[in-house]
Design brief:
mainly alpha; 4 helices
């Protein structure tokens, strides 16, 4: 991702980039899955360009944190 590779050199934003991206993805995942009762992890992985294992981990973390 070219934007993130450039953003990591930003004086103020660079050191928080991973945290911000993670928070954006977390909120997007919540919005993406909330209307469904049954979810195919492969579809989520494809939509978010992540591995199924990573999606499972992030969804599990969301469930634990309520």
């Amino acid at each position: 991702m070219q934007i993130t590779s450039q953003m990591k050199f930003d004086l103020y934003f660079g050191r928080r980039l991973e945290q911000v991206i993670s928070e954006i993805r977390r909120k997007a995942l919540v919005q993406y899955v909330s209307p469904y009762k049954v979810i195919d992890m492969r579809e989520i992985a494809k939509a978010f360009d992540l591995t199924v294992e990573r999606v499972e981990l992030e969804i599990a973390q969301l469930i634990i944190s309520k």
